[in-house]
Amino acid sequence: MGQYKYAVYLDDNFHYMDEDERHKLGEFDDCAAAIAACEQIVDEFLLPNRGQCEDLFATYLMFGDDPFILTDDPNCKFSARDYARERVRVLAEGP
Question: To which H or E segment does residue 41 belong?
């Protein structure tokens, strides 16, 4: 076991800043696993909605889940907004 724990939480973008809508996804033993869980949450919104809306990124910002990591590890960083922006760009380029 590493020296840090990584807790992943989800905020609901539709209920921005409403902590009553926040829930804990789980705890992970390493940063990579926590980041992978966050990326999966964002992808679970983006992939099915690809081609279904005019501006996928704006739709994500309004209605998608916003995963984040709580940890004491200063080197573990994840931004759902940045990840979603990049994924939308990649998805727009096609296969």
Answer: helix 31-49
